[in-house]
Amino acid sequence: MKNYELLSLISSKIDEKQLPLIGEKIEGIIKDLKGNLINKENLGKKEIAYPIKHENKGYFLAFRFTLEPKEVKKLEEKLKNISEILRFQIIKKI
What we know:
By secondary structure, the protein is an alpha+beta fold. The protein contains 2 helices and 4 strands, in the order βαββαβ. β2 (36-52) and β3 (55-67) form a beta hairpin. The protein has one domain: Ribosomal protein S6/Translation elongation factor EF1B (Alpha-Beta Plaits), CATH 3.30.70. It is 24% helix and 52% strand. The termini are close together. The chain is globular. The chain has helices at residues 19-32, 72-80; strands at residues 2-11, 36-52, 55-67, 85-93.
């Protein structure tokens, strides 16, 4: 298992009360792929540098987790299917 960080940009069009549900959905995907969540952090609503899908702001959620390297591609595919996620980036930690 390797350490990874996921930074996700969530649509600002959702109600802020729905944000924990989206976080739990992402956590569930990581756990379904036999990953271990280390840390989850809500970085708040921020303005972004350029519009993404006609939005200028978004909520940032950060996750630290361990996962088998072969499962990262599956995680990316599942994250792409969550309509509230505007963008995400997965970084391998050394």
